[in-house]
């Protein structure tokens, strides 16, 4: 009886150990985690196009690189653009069609256009057409600013009107009036009769009495403002003006010493480029000023900032009375003048007059 019991216990003990080992193995397998393979996604850099503003001048083309400030540009791209409204654009690949980074765009504004123009461009990744962005290029076209110096130099800075560009004695000799005599060396008459291009200046002031009519030769500037204090007065006989003459700051006064009642104070017949500035003309026994064209050529004349006073007729500008002469009577600018105490004031037979 004792022997049988021991064998039974031994058998029972072995079975329990095996069962425990099996259960332990099962528990271990359950506790172990099975690794899961995750899918790795490629990182995509989003294309970012940046707006640009460029400036140029009227009628002037400009080259620029719109892509230089754009962000995350792929190696291979697709480009497209709209058309500007007031100009044209063209792309220059600089002989590297596969490398857009050195591309430039040339904008040419339309002729005489100034203001603001624009166009839009789009950049896409050639390998991912969903990765795109666009930007706007704004072009400011400035107008051409005229230089302060005119392309044709004026007779003097404040010269106005049709004869404003008279050259007078510019570039010629300077002649000095050194006395108030009617004629002779150093006289006003001698300077006027000189045939060279010349500017007449005054070393004296006072009254010069013309004993006979005087006409100056062409291409002359008479600069009365150069006289010492008191200035210059021309009295007596008529003074006649020739082509391309500038007269400034002179007083003209007629008298009746010869008994004539039909004499103009200052006159010009069929001449061109005459300008009278800051002068005064008084006591004309006929017209104080007579600028007359005979119809053979249309002259240009300016009378500005002058005083015309105390005469029979203030001023006559233009042609004779015939229709043929009136059709070619010249161009006159009559600007900021004072007319006073005249028997008759202003007779105009002109094609154009500016006031």
Automatic annotation (TrEMBL):
This is Pectate lyase. InterPro entries: Pectin_lyas_fold, Pectin_lyase_fold/virulence, Polysaccharide_Lyase_1. Keywords: Glycoprotein, Lyase, Metal-binding. It comes from Jejuia pallidilutea. It comes from the Bacteria. PANTHER family: PECTATE LYASE C-RELATED (PTHR42970). One of its GO terms (molecular function) is metal ion binding. The lineage of its organism: Bacteria, Pseudomonadati, Bacteroidota, Flavobacteriia, Flavobacteriales. The keyword DNA-binding does not apply. The keyword ATP-binding does not apply.
